[in-house]
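Hi, here's the filled form for the chain we discussed.

Project: internal
Contact: R.S.
Residues: 306
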Amino acid sequence: MTTPLVFTFILLAAAAAAGAADNPAEQSGAKPAAAEQGKAAPAHVTARQIVERIKQNVACPWAATTVDTFKAGNPDAEVTGVAVTFMASLDVLQQAAAAGRNFVITHEPTFYNHWDKTAGLEGDKVLAEKQAFIEKHGMVVWRFHDHWHARKPDGIIEGVARKLGWEKCLRPGEATVFDVPETTLQALAGELKTKLHASVIRVVGKPPMKVSKVAMCPGAGGSAGQIKMLQRDDVDVVLAGETPEWETVEYVRDAAAAGKPKALVLLGHANSEEAGMEYCAEWLKGFVTEVPIQFIAAGDPFWSPK
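And the returned structure, exactly as it came back:
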């Protein structure tokens, strides 16, 4: 007669044998592939999730009204790679698609005006081709402008300062004024052209003028702010992206004619800010690790005949 204890043992052994038969890997003593390789399932991230991380890390209040919004594509699409750029030009989009970067973060507009409104461009062939390319390649475009500037320090200015080697030249208590080693206006302009890879820059002021107190006004901040900086006794030269030529330009020309040591360097909008987006790509790598992040230079759109 089989005792209850022996009977229980027989049942357990039978169950174990049946389980092994159902699982060949376990029957042979092998471990499941995932456990054997120690690999986790591939991480997935969407464009919207990356933007949420940016909002958390930029460390400034997120404005209710802002141009920092999605401009094209599906925000919930899975990201295969991120391309960071100053301008989402068609050329940049083509480079991003070829590199497998389907999420493009751009500092400036994609569709030719500040709010990326396409009203008035209905039927435009240039716009249609750009939109068709984005759709064909499943790309997502998001703008990062207002809050990259609102960050403290301003992300664009910090990136440009790094590119110029001016990280330690920022004047204490200032956000945009740098005390650099004394040089001439002509030499400074040459250094800026070289380090910022600018094809064309324009300078107002006397070439031999000594300069060391530099205010950085990147992009198109407006002549009022540029002139306000030039009115300061502790600023020699303003570096700006662009300005109406009948405003800051003429103010500096008159200042120079009056013998006042003032100068203006117009770098071009792209040249004055692109290094800030190059830095943005590095900044993003600190909290976006699932996909590759690449900076793609839009470059200086202007050229000058020799």
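Let me know if anything looks off before we file it.
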